[in-house]
């Protein structure tokens, strides 16, 4: 929404501005809907309201009375051409929430009790012009009504009676059709200026005053109708509008206007009528003749378009941002579309733009998803990897929501929607390839890989696809604990799941490296693993003591450790022997020999906070820890020497990793505040990661890959970030769509992720160069 839309503040609307400013200043008023007939200037009024909350903007318009409070809105969304999903995604991004679909966003917002003032405008322009009523009803029912139930959220909306009805008595109404919100004298003066602009006559011309009064009688308080009457007056010399509601009068004046232009622009109705089927953002000049030919079934030349613009350009608006052309007002579309069958027209438009000319490629990317959804051809286009990667992500999301095509491709899109709606093409292609592998859409993933080189790829995924009725072969379950060991035949991933089972998977192929082992814990929350003496050992913790020790080579239980409720757990080696570190609520770390379960020593933080996470270096010489107070610790295991960084995180520090990164020992930790910290153990310097997460950080990893220090972090919302420690560059940001409980980064660039839907390995080498 462009706050500078129009030539100035809407004449006579000071009362409406004061009413909305008063609403913003009163925290007890929960919601208000600005309504009015088409052309009353709802969007323009709200654009000015938003602009005036900006201190710099309001300083430029200090003469306006009753300005709103400064910086009053936490989020502002223009809904034109959008849907429930795109509106929710935009709000989530602005409010700092992860996005995993509208319902999940509403739940996130409900749990976040901070006050939020939201404005959503252009709600009478959601969806596509020929399917607007259905989309408006869906937005109102599925999103706005539950949003209005949240007591800490205040809403300012503009739209139709459908929007006001959905909120009922939870919202007040500012009806711009009501005379109380538009000063009649100011409106008449504005009409006189419009007459002068159309006819070239001065403001002191008596005929201008007479015409202005006539237009005010016919149009007040509708600015669009008044503008059309003034433009028509310049050609016909008359001010005419039949009685009836505003829509009927607009239709009459529009017909008169076009009839008066037909002699000079015989194709005007065709050329303008085609804009009723343009993308809501408009159409570029080069693609306009193609649009007209497809809609009307008759050829159209660039000259036809230019002639129409010259003689009937009053009905057209040009985007200052893109230079694309659209109808001046969305209400024109219904009249100009005629009685054409939308599905048939859209079938012709799909044919016209499916293989577009080079100068129409940008328009095709944006408009083709909507045309295909209306024509019933979206499933056919979804089979084309190039279409999925090239299509405008917001328009494709809206088309998917409208057409409801079930199947792996739709599931892959939904799983990665947060990143697919925002990333550049290269990252979007890699993201879609990743989620396609997870959902079993391997043809799509292969097709995307054939289009271009990808910055990261999925080496393998053992994943439970959405809608699966049974577990796929080799699925390790919902993985919460994870470790990597080398059993002599190569690296093996040890995965612990919510059913209390341990699975071993070959890190190269994802194939089982042995039969699963059923432990005695109801679910594996954390684990540590070692390859030692020809055996693979694992220590597992469930919701309650005791900790259990298992030989995964033969499935034998080796005992347990009762007593304290253990929290952090990590496995390493010290002088060639395996060592198990366990964190206790007292701030003490106990070191055990997992072979004979004898205590080898204790490391003390010196503080009372619970030790939440632990991590050994590969050599076992350093142990890092975090605690419930957000502090970091690192010990030299042999000497017991402690280094500490208190207050590294606000709240609980939930995850930690330690290792050599490019020859430098570093600790990488993640907190419940979404921050990731990098602690250089040589210099003691603590520095934040280049970006923070929107949810708590549930896993971190660090390694040397291709000679460079690399770190990774993942959060509860499934977002994964990969960055170089030397320069902070982030070559990889993607989502797996579900919480990442554990992760490991290997020297060959393999990033192993354990999630609520299974486990996968992402090959990050291309991104790291």
UniProtKB/TrEMBL annotation:
Statement: the UniProt record of this protein carries the keyword Repeat: yes
Location of the ORC1/DEAH AAA+ ATPase domain: 29-133
UniProt lineage: Bacteria, Bacillati, Actinomycetota, Actinomycetes, Kitasatosporales
Originating species: Carbonactinospora thermoautotrophica
CDD domains, sorted: AAA
One example GO MF annotation: ATP hydrolysis activity
UniProt signal peptide: none
Identification of the protein by name: ORC1/DEAH AAA+ ATPase domain-containing protein
Pfam families associated with the record: AAA_22
Matches recorded under InterPro entries: AAA_22, P-loop_NTPase, Quinoprotein_ADH-like_sf, WD40/YVTN_repeat-like_dom_sf, WD40_repeat_CS, WD40_rpt
UniProtKB keywords: Repeat, WD repeat
UniProt xrefs under SMART domains: WD40
WD repeat start-end pairs: 604-645, 667-689
Lineage: superkingdom: Bacteria
């Amino acid at each position: 929404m462009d706050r500078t839309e129009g030539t100035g503040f809407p004449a006579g609307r000071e009362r409406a501005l004061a009413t909305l400013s008063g609403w913003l200043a009163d925290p007890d008023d929960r919601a208000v809907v600005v309504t009015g007939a088409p052309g009353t200037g709802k969007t323009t009024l709200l654009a000015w309201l938003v602009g005036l909350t900006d201190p710099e903007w309001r300083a430029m318009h200090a003469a306006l009375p009753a300005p709103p409070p400064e910086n009053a809105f936490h989020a502002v969304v223009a809904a034109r051409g959008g849907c429930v999903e795109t509106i929710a995604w935009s709000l989530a991004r602005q409010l700092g929430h992860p996005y995993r679909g509208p319902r999940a966003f509403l739940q996130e917002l409900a749990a976040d009790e901070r006050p939020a003032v939201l404005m959503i405008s252009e709600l009478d322009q959601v969806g596509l012009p020929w399917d607007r009523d259905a989309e408006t009803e869906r937005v109102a029912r599925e999103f706005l009504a539950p949003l209005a139930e949240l007591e800490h959220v205040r809403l300012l909306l503009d739209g139709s009676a459908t929007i006001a009805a959905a909120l009922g008595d939870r919202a007040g109404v500012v009806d711009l059709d009501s005379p109380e919100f538009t000063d009649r004298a100011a409106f008449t003066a504005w009409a006189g200026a419009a007459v002068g602009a159309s006819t070239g006559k001065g403001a002191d011309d008596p005929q201008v005053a007479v015409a202005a009064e006539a237009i005010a009688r016919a149009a007040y308080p509708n600015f669009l109708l008044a503008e059309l009457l003034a433009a028509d007056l310049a050609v016909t010399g008359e001010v005419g509008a039949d009685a009836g509601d505003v829509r009927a009068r607009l239709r009459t004046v529009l017909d008169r206007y076009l009839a008066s232009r037909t002699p000079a622009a015989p194709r005007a109705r065709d050329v303008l009528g085609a804009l009723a089927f343009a993308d809501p953002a408009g159409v570029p000049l080069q693609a306009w003749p193609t649009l007209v030919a497809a809609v009307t079934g008759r050829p159209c030349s660039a000259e036809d378009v230019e002639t129409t613009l010259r003689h009937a350009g009053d009905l057209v608006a040009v985007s200052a941002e893109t230079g694309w052309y659209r109808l001046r007002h969305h209400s024109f579309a219904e009249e100009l579309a005629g009685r054409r069958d939308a599905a048939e027209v859209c079938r012709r438009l799909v044919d016209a733009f499916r293989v577009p000319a080079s100068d129409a490629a940008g328009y095709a990317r944006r408009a083709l998803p909507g045309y295909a959804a209306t024509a019933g051809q979206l499933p056919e286009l979804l089979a084309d990897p190039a279409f999925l990667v090239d299509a405008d992500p917001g328009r494709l999301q809206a088309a998917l929501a409208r057409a409801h095509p079930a199947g792996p491709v739709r599931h892959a899109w939904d799983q990665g929607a947060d990143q697919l709606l925002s990333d550049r093409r290269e990252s979007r292609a890699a993201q879609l390839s990743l989620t396609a592998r997870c959902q079993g859409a391997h043809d799509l993933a292969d097709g995307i890989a054939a289009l271009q080189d990808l910055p990261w790829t999925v080496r393998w995924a053992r994943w439970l696809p959405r809608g699966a009725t049974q577990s796929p072969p080799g699925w390790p379950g919902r993985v919460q604990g994870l470790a990597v060991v080398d059993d002599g035949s190569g690296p093996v991933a040890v995965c612990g799941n919510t059913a209390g089972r341990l699975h071993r998977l070959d890190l190269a192929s994802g194939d089982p490296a042995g039969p699963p082992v059923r432990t005695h814990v109801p679910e594996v929350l954390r684990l540590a693993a070692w390859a030692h003496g020809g055996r693979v050992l694992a220590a597992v913790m469930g919701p309650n003591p005791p900790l259990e020790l298992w030989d995964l080579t033969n499935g034998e239980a080796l005992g347990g450790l009762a007593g304290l409720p253990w929290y952090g757990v990590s496995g390493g080696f010290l002088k060639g022997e395996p060592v198990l570190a366990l964190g206790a609520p007292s701030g003490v770390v106990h070191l055990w020999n997992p072979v004979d379960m004898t205590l080898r020593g204790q490391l003390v933080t010196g503080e009372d906070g619970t030790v939440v996470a632990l991590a050994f270096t590969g050599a076992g010489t350093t142990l890092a820890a975090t605690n419930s107070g957000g502090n970091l610790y690192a010990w030299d295991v042999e000497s017991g020497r402690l280094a500490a960084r208190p207050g590294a995180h606000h709240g609980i520090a939930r995850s930690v990793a330690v290792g050599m990164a490019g020859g430098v020992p570093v600790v990488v930790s993640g907190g419940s505040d979404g921050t990731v910290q990098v602690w250089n153990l040589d210099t003691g310097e603590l520095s934040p990661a280049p970006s923070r997460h929107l949810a708590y950080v549930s896993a971190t990893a660090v390694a040397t890959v291709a000679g460079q220090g690399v770190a990774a972090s993942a959060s509860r919302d499934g977002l994964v970030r990969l960055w170089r420690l030397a320069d902070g560059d982030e070559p990889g940001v993607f989502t797996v769509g579900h919480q990442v409980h554990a992760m490991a980064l290997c020297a060959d660039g393999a990033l192993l992720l354990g999630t609520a839907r299974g486990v996968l390995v992402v090959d990050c080498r291309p991104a790291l160069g």
